[in-house]
Fold this sequence. Notes:
By secondary structure, chain A is α/β, with parallel strands linked by helices. Chain A folds into 2 domains: 4-176, 3-Layer(aba) Sandwich (Rossmann fold), CATH 3.40.50.720; 181-280, 6-phosphogluconate dehydrogenase C-terminal fold (Orthogonal Bundle), CATH 1.10.3660.10. Chain A is built from 11 helices and 9 strands. A 6-stranded parallel β-sheet of chain A has the order 3-2-1-4-5-6. The first copy, chain A, has a 3-stranded mixed β-sheet with strand order 7-8-9, with helices on one face. In chain A, helix 4 packs parallel to helix 5 and helix 7 (178-201) crosses helix 10. The longest helix of chain A is centred in the C-terminal third of the chain and has 24 residues, at 178-201. The mean pLDDT of chain A is 96. Chains A and B meet through helix 7, helix 8, helix 9, helix 10 and helix 11 of A and helix 7, helix 8, helix 9, helix 10 and helix 11 of B.
Amino acid sequence: MKKIEDCTFGVVGLGLMGGAVALALRGKTRRILAYDIDVAVLETAKKDEVIDEGFIEPQEMLPMCDVVYLCLNPSTLLAFLDAWMPFFGAGSLLTDIAGVKTPIVAAMEEKLRPDLDFIPGHPMAGSEKGGFAQAKSCVFTGKNYILTPLKRNKAENIEFIKNVIYRMGFSRITETTAEDHDRKIAFTSQLCHVIAAALIDCEPDRNITRFGGGSFEDLTRIAMLNVPQWTELFLENKRELLRRIAQFEDSLDKLKTLVAEERKDDLQAYLQTARERRASMK
Amino acid sequence: MKKIEDCTFGVVGLGLMGGAVALALRGKTRRILAYDIDVAVLETAKKDEVIDEGFIEPQEMLPMCDVVYLCLNPSTLLAFLDAWMPFFGAGSLLTDIAGVKTPIVAAMEEKLRPDLDFIPGHPMAGSEKGGFAQAKSCVFTGKNYILTPLKRNKAENIEFIKNVIYRMGFSRITETTAEDHDRKIAFTSQLCHVIAAALIDCEPDRNITRFGGGSFEDLTRIAMLNVPQWTELFLENKRELLRRIAQFEDSLDKLKTLVAEERKDDLQAYLQTARERRASMK
């Protein structure tokens, strides 16, 4: 198996997540290279010693990398792979961070160059602040990471990527199918962002936070989302997201009815079940 | 005007909030007395030097207090005031912490003993952990506090209570009517708790947190609520809460439609407005 410290890592897309990956890998690899369309970001990252070298031409960087971390939105990712597939180094290992996995896995099962390996992943970390300049605010320590391996993935490559993930500070890795990932992420991530945005939509008073005690702030922080990225995630995972919204609406409706009809015992039972279930979640 | 350091404070109800009030006042007053039905809690609080003396009989404590902090649920509070009104010290100042204000204000405008002053308040702080033992986890520093004065309140008593509130660590005090409080709290607090409970209601899988990236955890932490307390708050403020749930459902429905119909530009505009509005909230 490859050793992390002997590998040249390439980061494609030096935004919030690409920057956080580079920061988390710094000093643990042979070299970190990065490709971005923004020269200024590459220069800053090199000056700050977050990366060893920046590239604005993928074909110059890709052949030198043992491992490539693709830190792009789903659609940009697929376009990038289509365009630059021939330039990856022979036998190199690819992984990504996209928040929907079904379209990525489907495309890679079909189109990946035979000598390459691509392990789809999703680091469950982020920040309402965007861009490379905010990469430090994207904390990996103690966070979850999901892998949705392809049928063709080599066991030793999966082991290698897991080592990389733990070395970056993540504490829990779950392996599952792309479909299961998309079903669950529609709930834990996309539905939560939808709720946060809807909560803000229904209250135009900017001074409402004078009446906040923490709950409102916690529930709506993620309304400060990256708009193009989340628009894409919502639409890419539309079917599962709509199913989750409908489930949530049913649960909300049940609770609303209990309040409206002042069914105190049933209301208490509903809240008690929620309390115990949430407390048992680790 | 009274000086805080010369006053004997009485805390009625030494639970999470009563305990947190006593902790925040410790060392800043002449004495802190406390009434509770639980002798063990009073003994612990005295042993830990959070209070100077504990009482299980209100009529023994109340006459000694210059200021009484009533830390009870709304219905218990009104029953307590009905039962013990004659025993408050002449000219003493009362304040409460109840999460709905309209019924309290209505009752006090009518029933308060003429020589007393009662300033209804709501510290916007709490914890999903309950009881005196968890009082330390209820942080006041930097938090909001709402006051809904009675018509009869003396200006100097309002000033005094504001000083007490700032001394306890709160950073922002808003004065408003009980009706305005209940309308806004229905949104910032009760609706958020309803949403958290409904989110947990619609997902029985306790391992779903393996797919959490922080948003889900932040949105559902408050599902671990104090069940009897929140049942009472929801029902006491039923009309405003139902109105807020309906508003939220409308906003959610708008967003759902944009996703379902893949109206990308409108979806981006909706999210952009939410993002900017939330970012402008202080």
